[in-house]
Amino acid sequence: MRSTLIAILFFITGSLTYAQTKLNTTTIDTKLKALQEATQTVGFSVAVVQGDQVIYSKGFGYRDLENKIEADENTLYAIGSSSKAFTVALLGIMEEEKGLKFTDSPKKYLPELEFYNEELNNQVTILDMISHRTGLPRHDLSWYLFPTADKDSLLARVKYQEPFTGIRKQWYYNNFMYLAQGLITEKLTGKSWEDNIRERFFKPLNMTRSNVSISEMVAQPNISKGYSLEDFTTNKAMPYYDIAAISPAGSINSSVKEMSNWLKIWLNKGKLGDTQVLPEAYVAKAVNPLMLVGGGIADKKFPDQHLNSYGYAWFNSSYKGHYRLEHGGNIDGFSANVAFFPTDSLGIVVLTNQNGSALPGLVRDALADEILGLEKTDWVSYYSEKINKIKEQQEKAKAEKKSSTVPNTAPSHTLVEYTGKYNHPGYGTFTIEYKNDSLWAQFVRERVYLNHLHYDIFEALTVKDNKVDTTSGGGLNFNFRTSDLGDIEAASLKLEPTLDPLTFKRTPAEANVSTETLESYVGTYALGGTDLKVFMKKDKLTLFVPGQPEYTLTPTGENEFMVKGLTGYKVRFEKKDNTSQMLLIQPNGTFPAIKK
């Protein structure tokens, strides 16, 4: 009943004619500049839409700090997860054109999609994926640290990603479910998600400079660099991050001028002028909430901002008595917020070049206060109070980390014994190498230095410009585990906060052993009356045990080999009392075989 009332209310108010608000632009400019200064933001752009008109549009600060190039309403920024509403809107079009139902199982369109368990396979609907209520946590470092350009292979990781709660029991953000939505549209249209976005939205909305990849963005003029505010004092440029296959969850780059047209269709029953871009029925449905987010009142200072919910890629809430839908976006160097008040026919978009910035939300709320004639909040003071608490918490965390480190302990193995490849099927593979008397972990897009904390636990320190940032620890630890044979067999990493540490199984690095040395191990070895044969096959040392398949021996040292396909089994060649022997090292013991 409540959802129906909201939809009816939307249509009633949507049919009214709104007089254009006369803005005191001097006052607004002053307030927004104060917020920019408080948050130490390099640059940002903002646009305000009322009805079908842009009533305020402006850039502040710089899109390029080093060269002092100013931002304006046409500057392109990465909008991150503000892209999600575009992805769901494509499904809204598919509902009208292709008969898709939001209550369908995603497996109807993606039979290859497999979840962690049968409950998920049998019960998850498209609507559950949209509203982040599948019970899956974020697993974001899977796509962030291990990116791939192949959407299908990225989706295949979902099978190995553990849920933390039951279906529809708790709201929890998940980008992989938006990858799946993008793939559903691809299956229904025979076109890529990217092409669907261009054809269904960019073209009819005259978003001629908006694009869906970093490679397209950097080819454009008037683009912003991305920045990170480090130690709350210094802005440093960040490299652009190409999110590759996870694109349906957040790869759009745009300007506030072009995003204004996106907002207009949400305020005008899916139309831009006379062009019906979104089905009117979808717009009416998509302004409604689907899942409660957190508790009833998120901030005690704002008791009227309650019933925070999530709908069709929009966060829904009451803002000082006005119904608001909004969605933020964050990706390396950029933050965004796109919001609209359907019953007030008001839309606001804020794009900035600061990483993880609070500015978009602050600017949005400051503008809403002014335009809607609401009680004014001192947002500068509000932000300052919040940031001071964050600083205190960080200092406390540093102190706790130092006190919890056990002094005077050493790793259980020589450092070179930790090297190799480490894999988790729901994430990917990273490599640990020994160089300059230290251990280094190489992910697909990042390299980190492993600093020993205590026992077999190392902390990851960020490598920037080929230098180790000694202040960057505390975020990720590598906890190495030893097998029954005494070898390092895995590393546990806390990559998902809601779950126990994830286990990455180790494959030792293959040693470079000369062909001459390998051939010296060829021969027949006697073990308890059974002859075991070792021979060369395709330049690989191979072991044959009667009644068993051939086993390839992969060198991990000059005379030590792992048995491919048998976890925990090793072979070592050595001489004892002038006798050559092969040691078969297994979980149940070590067995010598004498060379004939």
Automatic annotation (TrEMBL):
Residues 29-369 form the Beta-lactamase-related domain. Residues 407-505 form the Peptidase S12 Pab87-related C-terminal domain. The keyword Membrane does not apply. It holds the Pfam family Beta-lactamase. Keywords: Signal. Residues 1-19 form the signal peptide. PANTHER family: BETA-LACTAMASE-RELATED DOMAIN-CONTAINING PROTEIN, D-ALANYL-D-ALANINE-CARBOXYPEPTIDASE/ENDOPEPTIDASE AMPH. This is CubicO group peptidase, beta-lactamase class C family. It comes from Algoriphagus winogradskyi. The lineage of its organism: Bacteria, Pseudomonadati, Bacteroidota, Cytophagia, Cytophagales.
